[in-house]
Write a structure and sequence with these properties.
This protein is α+β, with helices and mostly antiparallel strands. It contains four helices and four strands, in the order ββαβααβα. A two-stranded antiparallel sheet has the order 1-2. Strands 3-4 form a two-stranded parallel ribbon. A hairpin with a 3-residue loop joins β1 and β2. The longest helix has 18 residues.
């Protein structure tokens, strides 16, 4: 089971159809980012099955508000692209897609 992190909608199912939007966490205040994180945590509590591991493919701004919840609720939180710039993350994903 997997979800897409959306600055506008929080967790989005991969087959969901949503309207285009311009909102990003990069343009949000710290307070707005915190509110977004609380919204996503509520969604994760409802939607994520009990599991031992979570694999997180998200930039730092999107990870930061979620890590306390993830660390407390899952045995292992794996972040394969940690430390990579946005450009390097895209390269990494393109490489994985071709394998």
């Amino acid at each position: 089971m997997w979800f897409i992190l959306s600055a506008e909608h929080g967790l989005v199912a991969p087959d969901a159809v949503i309207a285009p939007y311009e909102r990003t966490l990069n343009r949000m205040t710290r307070g707005e980012q915190k509110d977004w994180g609380a919204k996503v945590v509520t969604q994760m509590t409802e939607l994520l099955p009990k599991a031992d591991e979570v694999l997180l493919f998200a930039g730092e701004r999107y990870r930061e508000p979620l890590l306390p919840y993830l660390d407390a609720h899952f045995q292992t939180v794996t972040i394969p692209m940690i430390g990579l710039t946005s450009g390097r993350q895209l390269q990494w994903l393109k490489h994985v897609k071709t394998i």
